[in-house]
């Protein structure tokens, strides 16, 4: 199966342990903001959302409180939106999505990028889910 | 657990319990051990038990499952899977509207308003009508003698309410947590006169009994409902079977500290990491030691943001995350450790379920939580307990160093003594007297009705 995981933090090691992909038949693509913590048998696409110094400072300031974080989430500075924006322009990711059987958002900030990727680039029969439990279930069902 | 003496009885005289537990196995969510143990204990005590629970798919597609726990449900228990639909548990991204993908937190708030129309409970309120129908159908086919609802979710109290209103059947409310009380902050969550307050008052007014997991939560409710306080009981959590004894000998070349449990956003993993880092600079033994974290990262199967941030620092600090552990494997996991880390959210109403299992290992325990937590009451007399006065890194580091020394010095005899002390926390010691009392109550009701 071609599996694309949206994991902005790059902390994918535990998820891969749970998914237990078969290197002979599964191709894993990890989409993140930083180099993933697991690289064996994984193709990494590292996205770098563009952010000016001023907006980066504003985002850091808002992230310091619960109210600020909620405000941030509704603004264009929301990390999920910025990650999605970076994903939109990545040709390699679009190619991977076009061949995907399963697309998984493993973190909140990966949801929008995965959601848009499914609509824009993935085959209609590709499954798309949020969370490791759903991904495990679908993977197990596909192997049965 | 102490095995209750089986009560062989002809089927027509066996009491019938309708047990309502949304999160029944194979759920691996919070509180599932209590629901599993409660249903099994009633069955072992000679009751016919029917469970109303959410469908398996709810858990396979959201929180994840523990099939090893499901396999140990008493085979005599009938499980009725009641259809459950909630947007919060929809994991198929193709079904998500753009507004949800763009702003999931805001979308959840707006969505929860719709779900609270039939019952004032976010995410679960919409289950009410399906539960009512299921309860009536079960009672029609096999008359129910007692309903026991396990909350949360609090909509689990609905079948008891319905069968009591229509047929006078007694019901028991089992609070694994609290409805109106924030167990972390101690604040009241619903003002007097709110829908939640009205529902809870009515439910408690008519309940045969109400169970709470610790004394502080019971007292809070007794203050709110003094006229019904005589029906309140503490039915604490406990351990189900003692973790495997180990002949592991701690080594001065390095120890293994273990944490087993769900790492929700309330669990101060950041404080633990800060204290651990400092301890490693102060103690050569700690510098050579490791921490193993076992359990789910958050209740919903999605790592919370706080833990995701911390994980990038784990490797450099000798901390490893090992993922979830199935119920049947928990005992073996404890044999890997020389000391345990009890890391809990702050709140004087917080006990946790794992504190009892920790105690049952006999290993030294470092408490990384507010000293006022109810969990402190459980461990106060433990032989090798290392609490902290506050959650400052320096304080936590001192406790870790003390516990490391204690782990090195602990003899097999001392550990055996600690395990013996903890037998008071077997879950059966909590449940069995309550079940026996309920059996007597049901028998008395039957005799009274037969005499009419």
From TrEMBL, chain A:
Name of the protein in question: Uncharacterized protein
Organism: Agromyces lapidis
Automatic annotation (TrEMBL), chain B:
Domain spans labelled Glycosyltransferase subfamily 4-like N-terminal: 29-238
SUPFAM superfamilies named in the record: UDP-Glycosyltransferase/glycogen phosphorylase
Organism name: Agromyces lapidis
Gene3D superfamilies with a match to the protein in the record: Glycogen Phosphorylase B
InterPro entries for the chain: Glyco_trans_4-like_N
Keyword hit for Transferase: yes
Name listed for the protein in its UniProt record: Glycosyltransferase
Organism taxonomic ancestry: Bacteria, Bacillati, Actinomycetota, Actinomycetes, Micrococcales
Keywords: Glycosyltransferase, Transferase
Membrane spanning residue stretches: none
Keyword Glycosyltransferase: yes
Domain of life: Bacteria
Pfam families attached to this UniProt entry: Glyco_trans_1_4, Glyco_trans_4_4
């Amino acid at each position: 199966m071609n599996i694309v995981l949206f994991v902005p933090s790059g902390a994918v090691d535990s998820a891969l342990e749970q998914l237990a992909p078969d290197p002979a038949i599964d191709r894993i693509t990890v989409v993140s903001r930083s180099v993933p913590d697991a690289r064996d048998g994984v193709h990494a696409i590292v996205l770098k959302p563009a952010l000016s110094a001023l907006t980066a400072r504003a985002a850091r300031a808002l992230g310091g409180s619960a109210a600020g974080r909620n405000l941030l989430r509704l603004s264009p500075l929301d990390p999920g939106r910025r990650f999605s924006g970076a994903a939109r322009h990545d040709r390699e990711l679009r190619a991977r999505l076009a061949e995907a059987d399963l697309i998984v958002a493993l973190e909140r900030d990966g949801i929008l990028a995965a959601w848009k990727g499914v609509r824009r680039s993935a085959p209609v029969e590709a499954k798309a889910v949020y969370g490791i439990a759903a991904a495990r279930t679908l993977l197990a069902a596909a192997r049965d | 657990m102490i095995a209750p003496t089986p009560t062989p009885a002809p089927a027509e005289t066996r009491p019938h319990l309708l047990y309502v537990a949304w999160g029944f196995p194979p759920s691996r969510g919070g509180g599932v051990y209590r629901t599993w143990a409660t249903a099994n204990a009633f069955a072992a005590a000679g009751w016919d038990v029917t469970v109303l629970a959410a469908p398996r798919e709810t858990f396979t597609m959201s929180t994840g499952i523990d099939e090893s726990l499901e396999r140990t449900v008493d085979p005599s228990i009938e499980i009725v899977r009641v259809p459950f639909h909630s947007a919060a548990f929809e994991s198929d991204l193709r079904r998500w509207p753009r507004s949800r993908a763009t702003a999931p937190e805001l979308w959840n708030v707006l969505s929860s308003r719709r779900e609270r129309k039939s019952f004032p409970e976010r995410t679960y309120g919409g289950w009410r009508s399906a539960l009512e129908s299921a309860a009536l159908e079960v009672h029609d086919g096999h008359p129910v003698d007692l309903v026991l609802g396990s909350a949360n979710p609090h909509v689990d109290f609905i079948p008891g309410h319905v069968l009591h209103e229509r047929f006078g059947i007694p019901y028991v409310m089992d609070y694994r947590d609290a409805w109106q009380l924030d167990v972390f902050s101690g604040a009241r969550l619903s003002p007097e006169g709110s829908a939640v307050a009205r529902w809870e008052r009515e439910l408690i007014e008519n309940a045969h009994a109400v169970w709470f997991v610790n004394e502080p939560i019971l007292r809070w409710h007794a203050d709110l409902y003094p006229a019904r306080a005589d029906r309140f009981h503490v039915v604490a959590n406990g351990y189900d079977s003692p973790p495997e004894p180990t002949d592991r000998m701690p080594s001065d070349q390095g120890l293994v500290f273990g944490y087993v449990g769900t790492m929700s956003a309330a669990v101060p993993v950041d404080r633990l990491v800060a204290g651990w880092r400092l301890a490693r600079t102060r103690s050569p033994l700690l510098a050579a030691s490791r921490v193993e974290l076992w359990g789910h990262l958050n209740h919903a199967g999605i790592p919370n943001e706080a833990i995701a941030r911390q994980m990038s620092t784990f490797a450099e600090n000798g901390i490893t995350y090992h993922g979830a552990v199935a119920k049947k494997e928990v005992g073996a996991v404890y044999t890997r450790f020389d000391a345990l880390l009890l890391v809990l959210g702050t709140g004087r109403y917080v006990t946790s379920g794992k504190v009892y299992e920790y105690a049952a290992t006999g290993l030294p325990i470092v408490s990384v939580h507010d000293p006022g937590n109810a969990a402190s009451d459980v461990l106060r007399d433990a032989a090798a307990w290392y609490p902290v006065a506050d959650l400052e890194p320096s304080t936590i580091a001192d406790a870790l160093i003390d516990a490391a020394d204690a782990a090195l010095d602990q003899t097999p005899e001392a550990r055996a003594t600690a395990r013996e002390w903890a037998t008071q926390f077997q879950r059966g010691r909590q449940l069995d007297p309550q079940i026996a009392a309920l059996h007597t109550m049901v028998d008395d009701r039957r005799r009274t009705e037969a005499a009419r």
